[in-house]
Amino acid sequence: MENAIIIENASVYMDENLVLKNINWTLERGARCFLMGANGAGKTTLVKMLMGFAWPVYGARVEILGNVYGQCNLQEVRKKIGWVSPFMQHWTSEDSKALHVVLSGLDGSLGLFRDVTEEEVDRAMAILTELNAAHLAERSWYALSSGEQVKFLIARALITSPEMLILDEPSVYMDLAGREYLLSEIERFANSRPDLTLIFITQRIEEIMPVFKHGMALKNGQIFKSGSTEEVLTEENLEQIFNIPVKLLKSENGRFWPVVGIR
Q1: Shortest CA distance to 21 belongs to which of 42, 6, 4, 44?
Q2: CATH 3.40.1010.20 given to domain 3-80+162-260
Q3: Which of 211, 232, 236, 242 has the most other CB atoms within 10 Å of its CB?
């Protein structure tokens, strides 16, 4: 199986601080992988390195979707990577139509600054239909709930048919009901696109759905554990990652739920 990600001996400094140290990680194409860690563990910097916005020191190798960074056109590589973050929800003007946010993904812009073709609109609507959000397309962006906005941001990321999708804490601003609805949509969507490499970043153990078969945990800028979900999500590992006793309960739907302060 061809790898989507190959990272070797990667250390990254930000403002003269070492934030990632000796990262070695491979991930196969089509894998569903979660990435977790406490605040400051290095998750955001790792995403920046995947996107080519943060560079490791000399001697590292970063190969994404068959492209070796430093030997490729980064703009072209970024077109193959969809990135969704709730922090993008505030990057659009108040009068933006929700459909226009999706269409802005065609040019990687933070607004729609050109006329679009009928084929492009049809493509956007087809993706929104897949995400059960087509009926919201004509609404104002700020008339949508946080969960609805994230679904439109996912559609925005998918409109260029990326080979990799990074979901960066997509439910961080949501209440319980909104989060659970979004997670069910992500799981359904992930099962419908087996060729898409999907990376799900979270700090919340209960958000990790059974569709994610692989995982990696960061601690203090280093890989603490990488492997199958069962290998990463253990009470012993979580206690060391978050520095608090954790008891894991597994629900009937296959998700793990932490009870903190108990072992």
Answers
A1: 42
A2: no
A3: 232
Please give the angle made by the CA atoms of 31, 85 and 91, to the nearest 5 degrees: 150
Query: Which stretches of the chain drop beneath a pLDDT of 50?
Result: none
246 close to 195: Cβ distance less than 8 angstroms: no
DSSP reduced 3-state for 189 = helix
User: Which residue reads 């999907």 in tokens?
Assistant: 198
- State the amino acid at position 214 in one-letter form: H
The domains of the chain are located at: 3-80+162-260, 89-161
Residues 75-91 have pLDDT tens digits of 888 889 998 887 776 66
Torsion of CA 178, 184, 200, 226, to 10 degrees: 130
pLDDT at 262: 65
CB 2 within 8 A of CB 66: yes
Distances (CA, A) of 147 to 24, 82, 161, 172, 258: 34, 18, 22, 10, 23
Check residue 32 and give its pLDDT: 96
Pairing of strands 246-250, 256-260: antiparallel
Q: Label residue 16 left, alpha or beta by phi (over 0 means left) and psi (-120 to 50 means alpha).
A: left
